[in-house]
Design a protein that fits this description.
By secondary structure, the chain is an all-alpha fold. About 65% of the residues lie in helices and about 0% in strands. It has two domains: about 60 residues, 434 Repressor (Amino-terminal Domain), CATH 1.10.260.40; about 50 residues. Helix 2 packs across helix 3, helix 4 packs across helix 5 and helix 6 packs across helix 7. The longest helix has 25 residues. The protein is elongated. The termini are far apart. The model has no long low-confidence stretch (mean pLDDT about 80).
Length: about 140
């Protein structure tokens, strides 16, 4: 979902017209219309004002604005998880922090698992050719 579509969705969920959101963030209604139609993108400070007015963390709006397709990838792989993530803004701030901690812990566990299952070179053996190419060479010449 685009940033504009997300702004419109959140606005409608609050029962506001574009004019109402515009008044909340002190802009013209035409600005809101252009953002919602993805004709213009609000600047960072305005994104913060929008996030405050719409009662969501700014990260939520920034995630909607990502160009890398991460949210689309999550949507394709796990629709239930994607829907839960869309609703995170509804939970209390301390619960959001706890959720972040849980996710960070799980990701750290996955990274540790990757490190543990990756084969390491045996002691006394030379590294693979790809690693030797990237290593800086020591010069045999000594400067006087």
């Amino acid at each position: 979902m685009s940033l504009g579509a997300e702004i419109a969705r959140l606005r409608i969920a609050k029962g506001w017209r574009q004019k109402d959101l515009a008044a909340q963030v002190n802009v013209l209604q035409s600005h809101v219309a252009r953002w919602e139609n993805d004709m213009n993108r609000p600047r960072r400070r305005m994104l913060q004002k929008l996030a405050d007015a719409l009662a969501v963390p700014i990260e939520y709006l920034l995630a909607a604005d990502r160009k890398d397709g991460t949210s689309r990838l999550v949507e394709e792989q796990d629709a239930v998880l994607a829907e839960l993530l869309r609703q995170v803004h509804k939970i209390e701030p301390q619960d959001r922090e706890a959720l972040k901690t849980i996710l960070q812990t799980m990701l750290t566990k996955a990274q540790m698992h990757e490190l543990l299952v990756r084969p390491s070179p045996a002691i006394g053996t030379s590294p693979p050719e790809s690693e030797r190419k990237n290593r800086p060479r020591l010069s045999a010449k000594r400067s006087a």
